[in-house]
Automatic annotation (TrEMBL):
Segments of the chain annotated as binding DNA: 34-53
Full protein name: TetR/AcrR family transcriptional regulator
Pfam families: TetR_C_6, TetR_N
Coiled-coil annotated residue ranges, if any: none
Lineage: Bacteria, Bacillati, Actinomycetota, Actinomycetes, Micrococcales
Length: 199
């Protein structure tokens, strides 16, 4: 019983750390959000903080995983009236409000291309999940006649992910870029051409 209680407390503390880290990184930026600052935010030492995650890289990967969970929950609340495309547009649009999390995603995803990096498995699985989810939505839209049928759904999903990731890099270089609008342009290319009756 005591072990179960300790486990529950550990899970709750991890959630507290992730919530604080999301807030601090979004506000301060990835480069300025030190492990010490994150530890201070939840009343722990740096060693105490890393006890819950192992390494700084695993902590940051957990922060991004938590952000994805929040975005997915927001999307699922509106399932039925929001397609994966619209969910992506909305998520990209909100990203402009959290530049620190974009910095974290861009830097950590580049570092995690190394198979030995602690966050490599997270990004590999994230990419696979995104491609499956979006490709499935594209196939559904193709069946409904709302997406072009002359494109491969898996290839289109990969191009959408590559575009979204690349736009985040470009936005960090030039924050005047409207990421959501650029993604919208790409997604419109996947729509079927208007029929003569629609033109």
């Amino acid at each position: 019983m005591a072990r179960r209680g300790a486990y529950a407390k550990g899970v709750a503390k991890r959630e507290e750390i992730l919530a604080a880290a999301l807030e601090v990184i979004a506000r301060e930026g990835y480069g300025r959000a030190s492990v010490r600052e994150l530890a201070d935010a939840v009343g722990l030492s740096q060693a105490g903080l890393l006890h819950y995650f192992g390494t700084k890289e695993e902590l940051f990967a957990a922060v991004l995983r938590k952000r994805d969970e929040i975005d997915l929950a927001r999307f699922e609340e509106r399932t039925g009236d929001v397609t994966a495309f619209e969910g992506l547009r909305q998520t990209i649009g909100r990203n402009a409000d959290v530049p620190g999390l974009i910095q974290l995603y861009v830097r950590l995803s580049a570092e995690a291309t190394d198979p030995t990096h602690p966050a490599h498995a997270f990004f590999t699985e994230r990419t696979r999940t995104f491609r499956v989810f979006v490709a499935s939505d594209i196939r559904r839209m193709q069946a409904e006649g709302t997406a072009r049928t002359d494109i491969d759904a898996e290839q289109a999903a990969m191009l959408i992910l590559a575009s979204a990731d690349g736009l985040q890099v470009q936005w960090l270089m030039d924050p005047t870029i409207d990421m959501a609008e650029h993604v919208s342009v790409l997604l419109r290319l996947l729509e079927p051409p208007p029929t003569p009756a629609d033109a």
